[in-house]
Amino acid sequence: MKFSRILGIGALTLSLAAGGAFAQDKAAKQAEINKATTASLIKFYAAKPELKDAVANAPGYAVFTTYGFSFIFGGAGGKGLVHDNKKNTNTYMEMASGSVGAQMGAAENDVLMIFKNVATMNEFINKGWTAGGGATAAAGAGGKTVGGGAGSNAMSNADSYTLTKTGLEAGIAIAGSKYWKDKDLN
């Protein structure tokens, strides 16, 4: 009887400790994404100062840091958040993309999306698909961007901007991306 009681108390203690560790881990991961978002916004504002007002006056915006590789076929993944300016809340998200075309490169990018209305922002949070195509020629090192891309995406009520942090990309491609809520961070 005593052994089962001790075992029960031990299991309860472990479960409470694990729950607390997860909460700290969750908060640390959220803080890391918040810090990366702030750093990315500072870079976007330095590259294009009018974006600061656009972000402040929009219903909301999204910022992602992505890592990708391409050679004819390409793929990328990353994490970020959508910030609702009215509610002052963040929805933490993940993303993955695939592309095909005359392309080659490997890069780390910051992506900024500025939503023109609440409906588009909410649709992005809940559905998260985008598709697009275009041409790019970009190189970056040490957080500095040299070049940029041109193209279109399927979100007509959002503007999208990309900064190449490190790496080199060049080519023409058709791409699709999926964004989804990070179930562990929300």
| Major pleated sheet | 5 strands, antiparallel
Number of helices: 3
CATH topology: Lipocalin
* Structural domain tally: 1
Gyration radius, rounded: 20 Å
Distance separating the two termini = 41 Å
Helix amount, in percent?
25-40%
List key phrases describing it.
disordered N terminus, Lipocalin, five-stranded antiparallel beta sheet, about 190 residues, 3 helices, alpha+beta
Short structural summary:
By secondary structure, this protein is an alpha+beta fold. The protein is built from 3 helices and 5 strands. A hairpin with a 2-residue loop joins strand 3 and strand 4 (144-153).
Structural notes for this entry:
- This protein is of the alpha+beta class and 186 residues long.
- The chain has one domain: Lipocalin (Beta Barrel), CATH 2.40.128.
- It is 34% helix and 53% strand.
- It is built from three helices and five strands.
- The protein has a five-stranded antiparallel sheet with strand order 1-2-5-3-4.
- Strand 1 and strand 2 (89-115) form a beta hairpin.
- The longest helix is centred in the N-terminal third of the chain and has 46 residues, at 2-47.
- The radius of gyration is 20 Å and the shape is globular.
- The relative contact order is 0.18.
Annotate the secondary structure layout.
Blueprint: H1 2-47, H2 50-57, E1 60-84, E2 89-115, H3 118-126, E3 129-141, E4 144-153, E5 158-181
Antiparallel strand pairs: 1-2, 2-5, 3-4, 3-5
